[in-house]
């Protein structure tokens, strides 16, 4: 079971991923976490990633797809399923994901979209910034990330809608309520 968890920045993808891992035994791949790991370890890739992340911009598709291919090869080969958190974020990435799964004899089960009003996203990210010190959770970068989400990532709803893979979930309420809706959507697919 391979699942994509989509949603704007601050929509709760990370929190809900943790619960999905626990319930369904899925392997978690968060491209944001992978990139932050490179930045922390001061790798060459980390330097490149930081220059985009600090500006609220996406890492170029070609590079991001190469990174994902590598992570899949290293971490997910013998796993029964993966939860993709933060990937794909563009149409070319979605197309690449299909081919990367196909070449491994796998397919996408469902795309879950956490829908959260913009003012709630901003509030959550500002809070997270205060609590964790996450560098891109500041007012300026948040604005840029939201624009990037609308322009580049939201078209994926239609892309996956046409393939009957997209399920929208209300991403407000308690963590448990949201998780119950996600589980229901996954099991109904
Ligand atoms: P996230 O933790 O998913 O919010 O990602 C944090 C930042 O990492 C994003 O604002 C992007 O700059 C970068 N990033 C994460 N995933 C991707 C992706 N699939 N494509 C391009 N950039 C990404």
Please give a handful of descriptors for the protein shown.
14% strand; 189 residues; 5-stranded parallel β-sheet; alpha/beta; binds adenosine monophosphate
Question: What compounds are bound to the protein?
Answer: adenosine monophosphate
Number of helices: 9
Write down the overall geometry. globular
Mean pLDDT: 96
What is the beta-strand fraction?
Answer: 5-15%
Find the structural class using helix and strand composition: alpha/beta
Taken in chain order, the helices and strands follow as EHEHHHEHEHHHEH
Topology, number of strands: 5
Going across the biggest sheet, name each strand in turn: 2-3-1-4-5
Summarize the structure.
The protein has nine helices and five strands. It is α/β, with parallel strands linked by helices and 189 residues long. It binds adenosine monophosphate.
Describe the structure.
- Helices cover 59% and strands 14% of the residues.
- It has helices at residues 13-24, 31-40, 44-53, 61-76, 91-102, 118-132, 139-153, 155-162, 175-188, and strands at residues 2-7, 27-30, 82-85, 108-115, 166-170.
- It has a five-stranded parallel β-sheet, sandwiched between helices.
- It is globular.
- The mean pLDDT is 96.
- The structure holds adenosine monophosphate (AMP).
- Residues 9, 31-32, 35, 52-53, 57-59, 64, 86-87, 89, 93, 136, 145 line the site of adenosine monophosphate.
Secondary-structure map with pairings?
Elements: E1 2-7, H1 13-24, E2 27-30, H2 31-40, H3 44-53, H4 61-76, E3 82-85, H5 91-102, E4 108-115, H6 118-132, H7 139-153, H8 155-162, E5 166-170, H9 175-188
Parallel strand pairs: 1-3, 1-4, 2-3, 4-5
């Amino acid at each position: 079971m391979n699942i994509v968890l989509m949603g704007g920045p601050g929509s709760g993808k990370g929190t809900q991923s943790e619960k999905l891992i626990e319930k369904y035994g899925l392997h978690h791949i968060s491209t944001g976490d992978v990139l932050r790991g490179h930045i922390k370890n001061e790798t060459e890739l980390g330097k490149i990633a930081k220059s985009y992340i600090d500006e609220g911009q996406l890492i170029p598709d070609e590079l991001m797809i190469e990174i994902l291919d590598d992570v899949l090869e290293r971490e997910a080969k013998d796993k029964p399923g993966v939860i993709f958190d933060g990937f794909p974020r563009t149409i070319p990435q979605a197309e690449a994901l299909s081919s990367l799964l196909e070449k491994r004899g796998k397919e996408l089960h469902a795309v879950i979209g956490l829908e959260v009003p913009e003012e709630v996203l901003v509030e959550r990210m500002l809070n997270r910034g205060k609590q964790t010190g996450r560098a891109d959770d500041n007012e300026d970068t948040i604005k840029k990330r939201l624009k990037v989400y609308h322009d580049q990532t939201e078209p994926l709803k239609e892309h996956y809608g046409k393939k009957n893979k997209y399920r929208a979930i209300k991403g407000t309420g308690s963590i448990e309520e949201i998780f119950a809706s996600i589980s229901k959507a996954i099991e109904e697919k």
